[in-house]
Amino acid sequence: GIWPEAESFKDNGMGPIPPGWKGTCMTSPDFNTSNCNRKIIGARYYADGKNDGSKTVRDNDGHGTHTASTAAGNVVSGASYYGLATGTAKGGSPESRLAIYKVCTDGCSGATILAAFDDAISDGVDILSLSLGGPQDLKPDLTTNVVAIGAFHAVEHGILVVCAAGNNGPWPHSVTNDAPWILTVGATTIDRNFQSNIVLGNNKVVEVRFRAHSTLFKIYMTYTTLFAYVSCINAW
């Protein structure tokens, strides 16, 4: 799914929607046609037994918004990571349009994945980017792998299919989207630390650093001092 209000999906500087585009913008109580623009030109969701809990294109966990902005997010000035590493953010192809096909909610159904492939081919996309994959111990062969099958049909129609290498790892054989007609690359990380300073009451500066791929979490600090002759009544 996608959170269309994100700055990465503004259509500033983009021309008209290509006349050959045949896609649609599906609506729901929390997503209407105005959420599509010259950047997000298509939006579909798919509901079945595994996806009935979220009949909306809207992103409910950040995954689709993250991957869409990585692939084709527009230029955003003054971006930062919670105030750190300020700079300009943009996707790999910031001038490209986006069509969103939400196939997963609590789970991913093979039927919805194949239906999305069919719709994307019919809509007229040029490139398909799939950020999904299964665990290596459940990897099916190419005759039953829905991603490989759908990608094969897309490539037959001249569409480049780019996939995440897998969904876990790094371990031997953890790459699952390895069909020869799929373009994929393994994950990587940057060799950068983010640093922030904590200034204590005595003006002592404590440097806090974390790796770029670390999980951000709250740190609770307790500052202890002694107050003499303060009664509970007076404290309130």
TrEMBL record:
InterPro entries: Peptidase_S8/S53_dom, Peptidase_S8/S53_dom_sf, SBT. Residues 45-189 form the Peptidase S8/S53 domain. GO terms for cellular component: extracellular region. It holds the Pfam family Peptidase_S8. It is found in: Secreted. The keyword S-adenosyl-L-methionine does not apply. Keywords: Hydrolase, Protease, Signal. The keyword Iron does not apply. GO terms for biological process: proteolysis. GO terms for molecular function: serine-type endopeptidase activity. Belongs to the peptidase S8 family. This is Subtilisin-like protease-like protein.
